[in-house]
UniProtKB/TrEMBL annotation:
SUPFAM superfamilies: Putative DNA-binding domain. InterPro entries: CueR, DNA-bd_dom_put_sf, MerR-type_HTH_dom, MerR_fam, Tscrpt_reg_MerR_DNA-bd. Its main location: cytoplasm. It comes from Bordetella genomosp. 13. This is Cu(I)-responsive transcriptional regulator. PROSITE patterns: HTH_MERR_1, HTH_MERR_2. NCBIfam families: CueR (TIGR02044). Residues 81-108 form a coiled coil. Keywords: Coiled coil, Cytoplasm, DNA-binding, Transcription, Transcription regulation.
Length: 136
């Protein structure tokens, strides 16, 4: 199948398929006599794996590792679990950071009059003019 068909079958844009190929995440596509990329069902299966891994927020480096583990039939499931749990820790850290940002913005918004006055703690905080950092 051509790249458009592989894109439709995998749910990954043609541009991203080319990118994943350029960085070695997926192997180079076979080429037709005319030089067009040709993808097999196995290639699409790999692309779907990548799409699902990306959907869970895995980085390109982590996807490289997961693909290697997926292809290694003698892999230890503990190796896969370690990759997943390291990623969970990173997701939880990012979630805590996002929550802190949301709490700070909520606090600043509560103290902003939201009327025609020019003074605003949100702008003060962003400009570094706030006297102290406030947290909810």
């Amino acid at each position: 199948m051509n790249i458009g068909q592989a894109s439709q079958a995998s749910g990954i844009s043609a541009k991203m398929i080319r990118y994943y190929e350029s960085i070695g995440l997926i192997g180079p596509a076979q080429r037709s006599n005319a030089g067009y990329r040709v993808y097999s069902d196995n290639d699409v299966h790999t692309l779907r794996f990548v799409r699902r891994a990306r959907g869970l927020g895995f980085s390109v480096e982590q996807m490289h590792e997961l693909l290697a583990l997926w292809r290694d039939r003698s892999r230890a499931s503990g190796d896969v679990k370690r990759v997943a749990l390291r990623h969970v820790e990173e997701l939880e850290r990012k979630a805590a950071e996002l929550q802190q940002m949301a709490d700070t913005l909520k606090h600043l918004a509560r103290h902003c009059h939201g009327d025609k006055r020019p003074d605003c703690p949100i702008i003060d905080e962003l400009s570094g003019s706030a006297v102290t950092a406030h947290h909810a």
